[in-house]
Amino acid sequence: MKMKSMMLAAVMLAMGIASAHAAAATSKSETADGLKAALSQAVNTAVGVLGKTDGFMGNPEVRIPLPGKLDNAARKLRKLGMGKQTDALQLAMNRAAEAAVPEAKALFVDAIKQMSVSDAVALLQGPQDAATQYFRGAMSDKLTQRFLPIVSKATESVQLAKQYNDVAGRASALGLIDQKDASLDGYVTRKALDGLFLVMAREEAAIRKNPLGQANALLRKVFGGK
Fold first, then answer.
1. Quick one: which of 226, 170, 59, 36 has its CA closest to 115?
2. Are the beta carbons of 185 and 152 closer than 8 angstroms?
3. What's the angle, vertex CA 69, arms to CA 65 and CA 72, rounded to 5?
4. Calculated CA dihedral for residues 164, 168, 170, 174, nearest 10 degrees
């Protein structure tokens, strides 16, 4: 009888340990799902804010100017009566960014699905924009490849675009602008990504700062219980 009692106790102990491990696994899985939900919300917010008419052009914080000292030159051109052409180029640059941003959504959806539980748990404990910066490092090349053809199509209709590339190439050789800004399409694409990740980072930080104010119950639970 005593032996049976000891065996029963051992079985119950083993079941308890297994249950504890299962609970821990569920907790980590839930954490990962919560972080993925936060990222999805950040992406949707960024695309919704930026991927529309005046998403860039109407927002001074992300509006794309001409790079470096060419922006100062543009101001002088306006004084010389060439403001119309300069404004047309800047408008085309920002419209190109607005057209490209929605393409990010599908790429992010796939990347979020593939994120591992361990990565998600680690990012939850990171700084306010940890997940955004993780994706910036992991996805910038893919996003650039997706954005470039759209930006190119949007800027090629502006006659000043070719002139920009000619002038910027010479300006880069003289040190007036960075080499990476010598291509109009490359410059616009980089600035579009800057704007996208800026809005994403702010949305992520807002979720972390006020999880209980989120409509999503999972976000409230995961971020509110850190």
1. 36
2. yes
3. 70
4. 150
Give the C-alpha separation, 9 to 96, whole Å. Answer: 69
pLDDT for position 159: 66
Q: Which helix (H) or strand (E) holds 44?
A: helix 2-50
pTM above 0.85, yes or no: no
C-alpha–C-alpha distance, residues 26 and 33, integer Å = 10
Kindly report the length of the chain: 226
Cα(20)–Cα(44) distance, integer angstroms: 36
Highest mean pLDDT among 2-11, 115-124, 216-225: 115-124
**CB distance 223 to 211 below 8 Å:** yes
Q: What mean pLDDT do residues 87-103 have?
A: 90
The answer to whether 102 touches 71, Cβ cutoff 8 Å, is no
- Quick one: how far is CA 12 from the chain centroid? 48
N-term to C-term CA, the chain: 47
Question: Of the spans 26-30, 49-53, 114-118, which averages the highest pLDDT?
Answer: 49-53
DSSP string, 51-88: SSTTTTTT-TTT--PPPHHHHHHHHHHIIIIIHHHHHH
Instruction: Give me the half-sphere count of Cα atoms (radius 13 Å) on the Cβ side of residue 67.
Output: 25
Under 8 Å between Cβ of 222 and 34: yes
Kindly give, in sequence order, each residue whose CB lies less than 8 Å from that of residue 147, ignoring residues fewer than 6 positions away. 100, 103, 104, 189, 192, 193
For position 181, what pLDDT does the model report? 64
Residue of 160, 142, 143, 161 whose CA lies nearest to 152: 161
